[in-house]
Amino acid sequence: MLSDQQGNHLSGATPETVELYNQAVTTFNLYRGDPFTLLDNATEQAPGFGMAYVLNAYLYAMATEPAANAAAQQYLEKAKVLSLNKREYSHIATLNQLLSGNWTAAAIALDHHNAAYPQDLVGLQVGHLIDFYRANARNLRDRMARVLKHWSPETPGYSIVLGMYSFGLEECGHYAKAEETGRQAIALEPLDCWAHHAVTHVMEMQGRVQDGIGWMTTREPYWSGDDNFFKVHNWWHLALYHLDLGQPETALALYDGQVRKDRSSVALDMVDASALLWRLELSGCEVADRWQELAKVWDQHADGKLYPFNDWHAVMAYLGAGRHDEVERLLTTFLQENTPRNEVELWARQTGLPLIEGFKAFWHGDYKTAADHLYKARYIANSFGGSHAQRDIIDWTLTEAALRGNLTDLAQALANERLALKPHSIMNLSFLSRASSAGSTSR
Questions:
Q1: What residue ranges are annotated as transmembrane (predicted)?
Q2: Residue 103's pLDDT band (boundaries 50, 70, 90)?
Q3: 45 with 111, same domain?
Q4: Distance between CA atoms of 227 and 231, rounded to whole angstroms?
Q5: Cα(163)–Cα(157) distance, integer angstroms
Q6: Average model confidence (pLDDT) for the chain?
Q7: How many CB atoms lie within 10 A of CB 316?
Q8: Is pTM, for the whole model, over 0.90?
Q9: Are residues 52 and 184 in the same domain?
Q10: Mind listing the pLDDT tens digit for each residue in 196-245?
Q11: Exposure class string for 404-438: b at 16+ Cβ within 10 A, else e
Q12: Which residues of 71-98 are buried (b: 16+ CB within 10 A; e: fewer)?
């Protein structure tokens, strides 16, 4: 039987379609190029090629977009009727959970799958992304730790596993080891934008802003190509560094340039756009009508049913654009089911709802209500979505709410908390200065 690059058997494949599949896996590994056309060509030539359908289903599911989710279901149905091996049926079981909105059940299914098939790179990478989408830092790290002994530098894809391990280490606060591992991955595969991104996160979390800017700019040719699916997110990280330096004008120029110049409708890119515009608003930047453009594009994705992390970022755009009816629509959708039917609905009710209520209150100037919602939400927000760097928008907004709402003690406490992690951040120093000035005036 034919096998992939790591030796996993592929049912229904031909020598020619295995080559197409391997190319598609590599494009997925590097987030670079078009895996969909490669996989569709493979199934056109070999209609019984199960893993080609499975990988397509995973790729569409990972988009966290309603139309893409429907496409993922179609590919899954095509795979289900084929003659598959035990490993491939295991992927079918995972997809059934994932497309039913039960992300943790899918992650656990892949935990067991990875233990049985530790060199199944597709299973490892999809599991890693699921861990990321549900903000499970421990499993981002430990999914790779459990299989690393089965890999070596001679195994195709070894650098990809190292890059994922690096990001998991970073999200768990093991910054030195994360950076060392990420740099090792990049030395083996310079185009690995996920490993690059992991090292970027280390520098962000440690407040090494100048190091981060240097890292991004010197390596720009490796991560900024037009065919790089992850390029906007890495540009977003560069903008964060400039915000930390108190340079919102530079960050706004990056928004107008590399972050939003193509008017991308990809959900990942739009999350970055919303998150950057919101931070710019908090920084006192005049963003003018940029919210209107972004809000209009969000309409195709923000259904309140698929992935609440996206809906929360859509709400930022709707608030900025003055489309408050859309905010209310999403809040109503989150409250429709008295008893959540799946994990996504639970996320919406338990995490999405207080975040949206908090951001809505902040936008309307009800800063005490915003602080009440967001202070509670900051402790549950990692039940879904994103990295520490992405979720920092909650604490930033909370701190700003405390300052604007004359909650002086809370503002000082939050500023001190932030400075303990990033003592040289100009933004954090500004928070403390403002809080201290307000405190001296009010006492």
A1: none
A2: very high
A3: yes
A4: 9
A5: 10
A6: 96
A7: 29
A8: yes
A9: no
A10: 999 999 999 999 999 999 999 999 999 999 999 999 999 999 999 999 99
A11: bbebbebbbebbeebbeebeebebbbebbebbeeb
A12: bbbebbebbeebebeebbbbbbebbbbb
Average pLDDT over residues 396-400: 98
Q: Which domain holds residue 120?
A: 1-130
∠ CA 146-148-153 to the nearest 5 degrees? 170
Q: Do residues 71 and 53 touch, judged by C-beta distance below 8 A?
A: no
What's the CA gap between 382 and 384, in Å, rounded?
5
Q: DSSP assignment of 203-258, as one string?
A: HHHTT-HHHHHHHHHHTHHHH--TTBTTHHHHHHHHHHHHHHTT-HHHHHHHIIII
Confirm if 384 and 135 have CB atoms less than 8 A apart.
yes
What's the CA gap between 83 and 13, in Å, rounded? 12
* CATH number for 220: 1.25.40
- Return the half-sphere exposure (C-beta side, CA atoms, 13 A cut-off) of residue 54: 29
Beta-bridge partners for 9? 3
Q: Name the domain count of the chain.
A: 3
Task: Enumerate helices (H) and strands (E) in the chain, giving the number of each.
Answer: 25, 0
Residues 246 and 394 in one domain: yes
Residue 35 maps to a domain:
yes
* Residues 171 and 281 reside in one and the same domain: no
Residues 23 and 38 occupy one common structural domain: yes
Is residue 418 situated within a structural domain? no
pLDDT per residue as tens digits for the range 326-360: 999 999 999 887 788 999 999 999 999 999 999 99
Amino acid identity of residue 2, one-letter, is: L
Answer whether residue 258 is part of any domain: yes
